[in-house]
Amino acid sequence: MSAFAPADPSAPVTLALSKGRIFEETMPLLAEAGITATEDPEKSRKLILPTSDPGVRIIIVRASDVPTYVQYGAADLGVAGKDVLLEHAAQHPGGLYQPVDLRIGKCRLCVAVPQGFDYASAVRQGARLRVATKYVQAAREHFAAKGVHVDLIKLYGSMELAPLIGLADVIVDLVSTGGTLRANNLVAVEDIMDISSRLVVNQAALKTRRHRLQPLIDAFARASLAMPA
């Protein structure tokens, strides 16, 4: 799939963000470029937010949609978690440039099971597991590397419920503090990968609008260096 640049090179630079943690943790990084959002997406119903720089605007989209908006050129840049980018790349390879690990939105993609579940026996060579997850590609690759056959059940929320009511044996989900797992008598038994958020850039836009995008990319890169490793 090719990357598409915006039709109008003079249009404002568009940054795609999702609400919540990503938005909040991106704002200090954007401030490195001297840019601030003039409205709070948690208080405004607007999906296109102006900034202190008239040449830059922010669009508010669902986290899983950020790579799509950037890849098709509806946004020049975006911020998305590594988990989202891996799932997107499995369906839409190519077209996205990932120049900076922003070191924000940190968590882990883990396998979790009900307390008392014998995970070691369940993943013996040739075994079959029912796995509930939003992250189908990452889960498939993880268990394939272990030689474990899986029946993948894609869910979009309340992942912890699946093994409690017999829908799945285990889940693959993002874990930050582990509080939700503990509240539902689940335990993380295996880390698949560390997750952080990345700056993604439309490749065609970078070629045609480099003079406008590169300063922003550089500002994000400088700010990310100050974040804890």
Automatic annotation (TrEMBL):
GO cellular component: cytoplasm
Enzyme nomenclature, EC number: 2.4.2.17
Biological processes annotated in GO: L-histidine biosynthetic process
UniProt enzyme class: transferase
GO MF terms, alphabetically ordered: ATP binding; ATP phosphoribosyltransferase activity
Catalytic activity: 1-(5-phospho-beta-D-ribosyl)-ATP + diphosphate = 5-phospho-alpha-D-ribose 1-diphosphate + ATP
Pathway: Amino-acid biosynthesis; L-histidine biosynthesis; L-histidine from 5-phospho-alpha-D-ribose 1-diphosphate: step 1/9
Cellular localisation: Cytoplasm
UniProt xrefs under Pfam families: HisG
SUPFAM superfamilies per UniProt: Periplasmic binding protein-like II
Domain ATP phosphoribosyltransferase catalytic: 62-220
Keywords: Amino-acid biosynthesis, ATP-binding, Cytoplasm, Glycosyltransferase, Histidine biosynthesis, Nucleotide-binding, Transferase
Domain notes: Lacks the C-terminal regulatory region which is replaced by HisZ.
Family: Belongs to the ATP phosphoribosyltransferase family. Short subfamily.
Protein's job: Catalyzes the condensation of ATP and 5-phosphoribose 1-diphosphate to form N'-(5'-phosphoribosyl)-ATP (PR-ATP). Has a crucial role in the pathway because the rate of histidine biosynthesis seems to be controlled primarily by regulation of HisG enzymatic activity.
Subunit-level organization: Heteromultimer composed of HisG and HisZ subunits.
NCBIfam families: hisG
Official protein name in the record: ATP phosphoribosyltransferase
Organism from which the protein derives: Pigmentiphaga humi
Lineage: Bacteria, Pseudomonadati, Pseudomonadota, Betaproteobacteria, Burkholderiales
Gene behind this protein: hisG
